[in-house]
Sequence to fold (266 residues):
Amino acid sequence: MTDTSGTAALPTLCRSGNPDAPALVLIHGWAQDQRIFNALRAELAEQFDIYSFDRRGYGASILPANLSLEHLDVSQLVKQIGKQITLLGFSQGARIATRFASHAPELVTKLIICGGVMDGYVTDSIDIHAIDLPHFKTLALAGELVALRRQWLAHPYCCLGMDDQSAAQLYAITQDYCANDLTNAAGHDFSFPGNVYQQLLQLQIPTLFINGHYEAPPRLELADRYTASSPDHHKTIIQGAGHMAVLSHAVQVAQAIELFAQGSAS
Fold:
């Protein structure tokens, strides 16, 4: 993996894979950093020119957490890449990916949503795995990071479908989570102008939804409804996986991405 370090917006930008292949940008989720994609990056190294980074307020990023600016960070990255991209957002990272795709659809050839959500989508399902963000925020503001990390690792998103190796990797990543997004109001302000869900339905960027078998019902519902709108959209369920499929089942996730890139997703 190469540290490109060439942009003020993304000082932790890393590039790997095949520089002559199509560009693939990976955006990580909440309480993580780009290491969540290490196994997936290795699986896709021959097929893609891969870019990832630590989002504002996460990992090694020195930038203050600010959700409202993150799609603009992606815009700066794509200008640096200099070509159209396939864009993958995992979990909360899907919110950033879809915001960017609605902002600059001409730059996104394909969109991949892994266990993610979209601004503007209203679910009919009960979210049995809902994250109690106010509780985690209280822990963060009290400086109770040890308790916050322990409780997050006990959440179904972090437990279901995980083997010992994947759990150990997630544990290591989580120990570096400092909750900067929860102690900065801009880091957990989810308001965004416009309805991204409706905008993307109209734009019809080919989209693949990848969910684990144990994913939360609202995220499965989103995939069902979105893919029903066009034959250009696809979905796949990773058997035995939970929310962290990109980590625990990287081989299967990579296979789904490769099929989608080749235009043969089921």
The mean pLDDT is 94. The two ends are 31 Å apart (CA to CA).
